[in-house]
Amino acid sequence: MMTKLEKAKEIIKANYKAADCGIFSTRNLVGDLMETIYEEDGLTIDTCREWRYFEVFGLEGPDFAELKHFYDKLTRR
Asked: Is residue 47 within a helix (H) or strand (E), and if so which, with residue range?
């Protein structure tokens, strides 16, 4: 069974091209239209297609930091 971090990496990598402008662990406050692309076992991943970013909820601080590092490596490709 995959950990939440491993699952998040898989989902982010598969959807990266649709949201290559950022990844956050906080809800946007400006009302951007969000689409939930994954929700299971306490992990929720939303994307804003208009502004091309992810919001990820359900990871502990160190796990989100590792996910952000993973995302940043995708950006540098």
From this structure: strand 43-48
Q: What is the dihedral of CA 36, 52, 74, 16, to 10 degrees?
A: 40
Q: What is the DSSP string of 21-32?
A: S-EESS--SS--
**To which residue do tokens 């906080």 refer?**
26
Contact 24, 67 (CB under 8 A): no
Residue 46 host element (H or E): strand 43-48
Rounded mean pLDDT, 30-48: 97
Task: Give yes or no for a contact between 56 and 23, defined as CB atoms under 8 angstroms apart.
Answer: yes
